[in-house]
Amino acid sequence: MVSAEISRSWLLVNGSHSEEFDAAAATKADQIVLDIEDAVDPSQKSAARDEVAKWLETKQAWVRINDRSSDFWSDDIDQLRDIPGLLGVMLAKTEDGSHVTETFDRLGGRTRVLALVESALGIEEAREIACARGAFRLAFGSGDYRRDTGTSVEDIAMAYPRSRLVVASRIGNIPGPIDGPTVGTSYGILREKSEHAVALGMTGKLCLHHDQIPVINEAISPTQSDVAWARTFLADFEARGRVVRDGSDLPRLGRAEKIEKLAVAFGINPS
């Protein structure tokens, strides 16, 4: 499994559909997220939580839990705490850094908290959320954000909130943020949206179906030509004794080292 710090594809799985958990775990998704929040009717949340907790006794996954202000948050925390297979929680509708820290503390101060930002207030408070104790990474709840603000789905309209999350993540010294899902069956649109998110500095993407995983993983990974350039640059830099020739060398070195790290993690080799 790819480290969660650099994971590209995050597959959301309905927490009420326990029969799908094993199949999801067998996909090429970097991470799977069992969803006991928006995907589950309120009347079924307790049963879904039971199924998720039972599965996590022997398997591993993230869990999207209900938001801090909901009536379900405390029960989610109490039941999931100390379950061996819990890799971390995705905290829905995060709007304040205290939501992250309270969740982190209630989980024992060891479980990673991925803050899902889904509203105008959440975007406004993104820096505080990213800097909160216990914050592991940010994710963008793009659908709920559009519903909250009336923003269209167009890239130019959504560039601001995405960029806010990127900048906040850098200030908080946490990994790059995860983009929201792309709805639909067009792989061309999915690739375009994934590449646009990468261009803005995002480093992962939520997905709703296993068919989307290969497209997301490829679009967010360095290309073979990127890797070839990085390895050529690094070899040349080492051959000249790591001597800096001009002001562009250090930025290029940083980019090359990042590409090489990702290439190794994702198994990418130029043909």
Which descriptors apply to this entry?
single chain, TIM Barrel, 2 domains, 8-stranded parallel sheet, 46% helix, globular
Can you put this structure into words, describing what you see?
The protein is of the alpha/beta class and 271 residues long. It folds into two domains: 9-220, Alpha-Beta Barrel (TIM Barrel), CATH 3.20.20; 224-266, no CATH class. Helices cover 46% and strands 15% of the residues. The chain is built from twelve helices and eight strands. Strands 6-5-4-3-2-1-8-7 form an eight-stranded parallel beta sheet. Strand 2 (31-35), helix 2 and strand 3 form a beta-alpha-beta unit. Helix 8 crosses helix 9, helix 9 packs parallel to helix 10 (213-220) and helix 11 crosses helix 12 (249-266). The radius of gyration is 19 Å and the shape is globular. The model has no long low-confidence stretch (mean pLDDT 96).
